[in-house]
Design brief:
This protein is 44% helix and 4% strand. It is mostly helical and 190 residues long.
């Protein structure tokens, strides 16, 4: 049932990001949105999508972790990319029938659980490896796109060599979908 917080997706679905269900999830919606969302809240020298970031994270992990790593930010297709410095302190007060405040992390976790059911992957099985790779890419991308990560207090150091493709949004979507398919992801035909 769609409440008052629904959105319309690329494929035309009406979904409620606060009450996602497995049948709401579509890999085409995810790829399209992540291809269009720019990292760092858009504060980059050139466009660099969350889809391309996800490809980079997937390249840093073991084979068993590649699919969940590719999808580690997939919930952002439905709630956007909230920059890390404020994400941890962001909560939504008593919204949509909730009796208490709900954190953005709780919303992300709920969407991820629905995605795991719909798309057949397990994030928790590779969580630590994905977090490390994501942190390496944050440092690497920050250094590359911002010129400095001084004062960022990051857990990982940047990779020494980084040459992002900086795909346009449509190509980022296609690359994301092709990688998803090559990793055995279900629900897409190219």
């Amino acid at each position: 049932m769609i409440g008052t917080t629904w959105m319309q997706t690329f494929t035309g679905k009406r979904v409620d990001p606060l009450n996602m269900r497995p049948e709401d999830i579509d890999i085409l919606d995810i790829a399209q949105a992540l291809g269009n969302i720019c990292r760092f809240g858009g504060h980059t020298r050139r466009f660099y999508s969350v889809a391309e970031h996800s490809l980079e994270v997937a390249n840093l992990v073991s084979n068993k972790a590649k699919l969940p790593a590719l999808l580690h930010d997939a919930q952002e297709a439905y709630i956007g990319d909230i920059i890390r410095p404020i994400k941890g302190s962001l909560s939504i007060p008593k919204l949509a029938g909730y009796h208490t405040d709900i954190s953005i992390h709780e919303i992300e976790d709920h969407i991820r659980w629905q995605m795991e059911i719909a798309l057949g992957f397990k994030y928790e099985s590779a969580r630590d490896e994905i977090i490390k790779a994501d942190d390496i890419m944050l440092a690497t991308e920050g250094q590359f796109f911002m010129g400095s990560i001084e004062g960022w207090n990051l857990a990982e150091q940047p990779k020494e060599k980084f040459s992002p493709a900086m795909y346009d949004p449509h190509l980022a979507m296609l690359m994301f979908l092709a990688t998803y398919r090559s990793l055995g992801g279900k629900g897409v035909s190219l």
